[in-house]
Amino acid sequence: AESRILWKDSYKVLIPAYSVEFGSINNLLPNTLTYFDDTETYLSGEIKVTNPFPAYGGRDEETAFDTRNRLDLFRYGRDGSKEYLQQLIFDNGVSYYGFNIVEYWDGFGSVLIALDVGSEEEYRDIVQNIESLKREGVKYHYCRVQPVYANIEVIVRITGEDTLYTQYQVNEVEEHIFTAVKLFFENQMQVGKKLSKNRLEAYVLQYLIDERYDIYDIEVNIEPNSDVTIDPITNQYKINEFERLYPNKVWSKIEYNEEW
């Protein structure tokens, strides 16, 4: 508590006080502190004391579980959420597939933000905007996404003889193959994501479904460059968290099954 002077003709004074002990147990209700440590004066009624307002701010000691949760909450953004940081990136015109947030242990709230943008000027502008709005004390590290490439071969198997289809129809199927692969990498392969051959085959097959063509099977062959490795557990093509996989060359091949 602080010392205050009770001036002549005054009958009360408000004195700020705080607890020397910790814990929520000291968040007392109003008119709880009514004991004055001078028995004779207190009993005579000359001086009385009370707390007209509730006490607040007392907090119990954190458990290890609470500490871990608090660190996770304050790792990313001003309001303590990863969603806030993602929204900052969205507000700067970067799509969901054009960035990645990576754990980066370099002090409080440290993450690495990999941005896939078109120019160095755009990259610097986004970094400056995020820095101006981030939570004080957190450290954001930034880098531009590095592109890696893979050659894609798509084999489409169609029922019937090749004479059943005109050259225009064949060209149309090949164009659809190229478009399907392009859309898959644009809308499914965000920064740092592994490439699944099965998912690519299913996506292309779904895109090629057309009643004019009796397509019964497709096969995709992937030839990545040296920067891409195969995950031995998932059998997917793996890249680094700050890289994004793009198709380099897309080849198409149509096979006919005359027996069907």
Task: Write up this protein.
- The protein is an alpha/beta fold and 260 residues long.
- Helix content is 28%, strand content 22%.
- The chain has six helices and eight strands.
- It has helices at 39-44, 64-73, 82-91, 120-133, 167-187, 197-208, and strands spanning 99-103, 111-115, 140-144, 146-159, 215-224, 229-230, 237-238, 243-257.
- A three-stranded mixed sheet has the order 1-2-3, covered by helices on one side.
- Helix 4 links the parallel strand 2 (111-115) and strand 3 (140-144).
- Helix 5 (167-187) packs across helix 6.
- The longest helix has 21 residues, at 167-187.
- The radius of gyration is 34 Å and the shape is rod-shaped.
- Residues 76-80 have low confidence and may be disordered.
Question: Which tags fit this structure?
Answer:
alpha/beta; single chain; rod-shaped; 260 residues; 6 helices; 3-stranded mixed sheet
Q: Secondary-structure map with pairings?
A:
Blueprint: H1 39-44, H2 64-73, H3 82-91, E1 99-103, E2 111-115, H4 120-133, E3 140-144, E4 146-159, H5 167-187, H6 197-208, E5 215-224, E6 229-230, E7 237-238, E8 243-257
Helix pairs in contact: 5-6
Number of helices: 6
Number of strands: 8
| Global morphology | rod-shaped
pLDDT average, as an integer?
79
Provide the β-strand percentage band: 15-25%
Major β-sheet, in short? 3 strands, mixed
Low-pLDDT regions:
76-80
First-last Cα distance: 94 Å
Taking all Cα atoms into account, the compactness measure Rg is: 34 Å
Compressed to H and E, one letter per element, the order equals HHHEEHEEHHEEEE
* Derived structural class: alpha/beta
Biggest sheet: strand arrangement: 1-2-3
Portion of residues within helices:
25-40%
